[in-house]
Write a structure and sequence with these properties.
2 domains, alpha+beta, 26% strand, 359 residues, 10-stranded mixed β-sheet, 8 helices, single chain, D-amino Acid Aminotransferase, Chain A, domain 2, D-amino Acid Aminotransferase, Chain A, domain 1, 19 strands, binds pyridoxal-5'-phosphate
C-alpha cells in the first residue's frame, strides 16, 4: 500500500473544536471529530481522496440517492488502550462488507486502499478525540452514496464515499425488552437485508416506533414468509441460550453478516461453550421460556458489543429473563472487549494497530 500521505490530500482544520467539546457526556452519534475522509467517483473513475475539515457537503435536490436510496454504509470503531495506543477491530471485514453491499445496489466497489488508508489516516489525525475509558471508543461511519443530479430510475454515474468519526461512550444498558414482530418485515429473500443499505433502516422505523409505544426497545424480526423463525434485531444479530447451548440463526440474504456475531461465535467455541448455528423458531424460544430453559438472549453488534435482553414479548405473552448464575453474555463481552482494548492476547490477529506510542 502507498504511503497514505501520498495517496490522500490532507487539509487540516485551523482550530480544533476539541477544547470546547465535553467527551464525558456524549449522546451517541451527535458529535463529529475535526476531520472527515472524502473520495468522489466521477466519469468512471475515482478522484484523489481527501481528508478535510468536517463540514456540510452540498448536494442537488435531484441527487439520485434522495430519490432511489442508492446508499450503503458501515459501522466500526477505533479503541484506545491505557497507553494511548489506538486499534481497529477486523477492519478488513467492514471493507469487504461495504463492497458486497455496494455490489448489491449496483454501485462500483470502493478501492480497498482508499478505505483502509482513509480510515487509518483519519483515526490517526483525530486520535485525541478518542475517549480513553474502557468501553468508550471512536465510532467510524463510512457512508457511500449516489450523487448524480438526475432523476432517471437507473444507477447513478457519480458517487461519493465519506468516512465520519464520532466519539462514543459505553452503551447504556437499562432494561432491553424486545418484541417478536409478525406483521412487518425488515428483509425478504432475494432482497437487500444482508447489505447495510440505508433503506433497510428507514423500513424498520415505523415498526420499531410502534413497539416502543408498547414499552419495548427493539424488535425481533422473523422471516418474512412465515414469521415462524427468529432472525435478528434492528442493528444486532441475536443469540439465544437454551440450557447451556447458544443458538444463533445462520446468515442469509435476509440477515446481516455481523462482525461481532462472527467473533462471538469463535470466542464461544474456543472457550468451551456449545454453539449451534441453525434456524430457530419462535415456538422453540417460547417453549424454552415457559419451561424455564431460556437462560439468556443477547444481541451482538459494533455499537453495543453484546447487549443482554431483559424480556421478550410474543403476542399476548411476556417473559422476563432470569438473572443467570453463569452469564454467557457478560463473559463473551469481556473476552471481546479485552481483545479490542488491548487488555488480552489476540490469538486471532483481529486487532489492527493504527497509532503505537513509543515506550
Ligand atoms: C450492522 C448490523 C449488525 C451488526 O453488525 P456488526 O458488524 O456486528 O456491527 C446486525 N444487524 C444489522 C441489521 C446491522 O445493520
Amino acid at each position: 500500500m502507498k504511503d497514505p500521505d501520498d495517496l490522500i490530500i490532507i487539509e487540516k482544520i485551523k482550530q480544533s473544536r476539541l477544547p470546547e467539546t465535553d467527551l464525558s457526556d456524549i449522546k451517541f452519534g451527535t458529535i463529529f471529530t475535526d476531520h472527515m475522509f472524502i473520495a468522489d467517483y466521477r466519469n468512471g473513475r475515482w478522484e484523489k481522496p481527501k481528508i478535510i475539515p468536517y463540514q456540510a457537503l452540498p448536494m442537488a435536490p435531484s441527487a439520485k440517492v434522495l430519490h432511489y436510496g442508492q446508499a450503503v454504509f458501515e459501522g466500526m470503531k477505533a479503541y484506545k488502550d491505557a497507553e494511548g495506543n489506538v486499534f481497529l477491530f477486523r477492519p478488513d471485514k467492514n471493507m469487504k462488507r461495504l463492497n458486497r453491499s455496494a455490489e448489491r445496489l449496483a454501485m462500483p466497489t470502493v478501492p480497498e486502499e482508499y478505505f483502509m488508508a482513509g480510515l487509518k489516516k483519519l483515526v490517526e489525525l483525530d486520535q485525541d478525540w478518542i475517549p480513553a475509558e474502557y468501553g468508550s471508543s471512536l465510532y467510524l461511519r463510512p457512508v457511500y452514496y449516489a450523487i448524480s443530479d438526475e432523476i432517471a430510475a437507473s444507477p447513478s454515474q457519480d458517487y461519493r464515499f465519506v468516512i465520519l468519526a464520532s466519539p462514543a461512550q459505553a452503551y447504556y444498558t437499562g432494561d432491553v425488552k424486545v418484541k417478536v414482530e409478525e406483521h412487518y418485515s425488515r428483509a425478504c429473500s432475494g432482497g437487500v437485508g444482508f447489505a447495510k443499505a440505508a433503506g433497510n433502516y428507514a423500513a424498520q422505523f415505523l415498526a420499531t416506533e410502534k413497539a416502543k409505544k408498547e414499552g419495548f426497545k427493539q424488535i425481533i424480526w422473523t422471516d418474512s414468509k412465515t414469521h415462524e423463525f427468529v432472525e435478528e434485531a434492528g442493528t444486532m444479530n441475536l443469540f439465544f441460550r437454551i440450557d447451556d447451548t447458544l443458538i444463533t440463526a445462520p446468515t442469509s440474504d435476509r440477515i446481516l453478516h455481523g462482525v461481532t456475531r462472527e467473533s462471538i461465535i469463535r470466542l464461544a467455541e474456543d472457550n468451551g461453550m456449545n454453539v449451534e448455528v441453525r434456524r430457530l423458531t419462535v415456538d422453540e424460544v417460547m417453549d424454552a421460556a415457559r419451561g424455564g430453559r431460556l437462560m439468556e438472549i443477547f444481541g451482538s453488534g459494533t455499537a453495543a458489543t453484546v447487549l443482554p435482553i431483559t424480556g421478550i414479548g410474543y403476542r399476548d405473552e411476556y417473559y422476563e429473563l432470569p438473572e443467570p448464575q453463569v452469564n454467557y453474555a457478560s463473559r463473551l463481552k469481556k473476552m471481546l472487549m479485552d481483545i479490542q482494548y488491548n487488555r488480552a492476547e489476540d490469538p486471532y490477529g483481529w486487532r489492527v494497530p493504527v497509532v503505537l506510542k513509543k515506550q
